[in-house]
Specification:
Order of helices and strands: EHHEEEHEEEEEHEEHEEEEH
Bound molecules: 1-O-pyrophosphono-5-O-phosphono-alpha-D-ribofuranose, uracil
Number of helices: 6
Structural class: alpha/beta
Strand content: 25-35%
Mean pLDDT: 97
Amino acid sequence: MADPNVIVLDHPVIQTKLTELRDVATEPRKFRALLNEIASLMVYEVTRDWPTEPRPIRTPMEAMTGRALARPITLVPILRAGLGMADGVLHLLPDARMGHLGVRRDEATLLPIAYYQKLPPDIADTEVLLIDPMLATGGSGAAAVSFLKQAGVVSMRFVCLVAAPEGIAALHAQHPEIPIYCAAVDRQLNEKGYILPGLGDAGDRLFGT
Ligand code: PRP
Ligand code: URA
């Protein structure tokens, strides 16, 4: 049965850019640009039901009460590859503060290793977008969500580009209430924990390592 807490953003413009991003011929410079563009496009849908509040202003003509986002926002990229989406999100949410979580997969065990954490002190009072292009085994994402929960975060969304069914199942086994937004759910993982068809190693393609 389809997981109701997985939202696939299959807008034609997102899909077109994702196809280009996946292409092995796409070099780091273009890869970086596309990743940020897709992240920007995803923000519209990811934030669609965030609360707004009245905001009194003056137009050049008269006073009025507009509406604006009610809660502060924190963007938390999972290092390294999550950084590749950050500028795209900040382009639309420039007032967001940023936290950073360093998590990398052990290449042999595929288990997550957390190596860096720096969060805004008031993160618990904000809407959090946790971003990482890849949800593969789900280990890194689940570890990051656990850490944010320990920091008191109550409202968070996980935003990725490509998710494997295995990663969705693993993340939701531990954190079923966390919405997962992605641009595609791919077929499966290979024996080394890479997503098929996927886009390869996101961090390496971003940073040319
Ligand atoms: C990649 C990716 C995710 C993780 C997903 O990071 O950016 O964080 O793998 O895999 P998982 O769902 O199986 O945990 P990686 O560990 O390669 O580190 P990097 O971003 O520094 O390259
Ligand atoms: N991390 C990546 O960057 N790519 C994958 O396919 C799996 C994990």
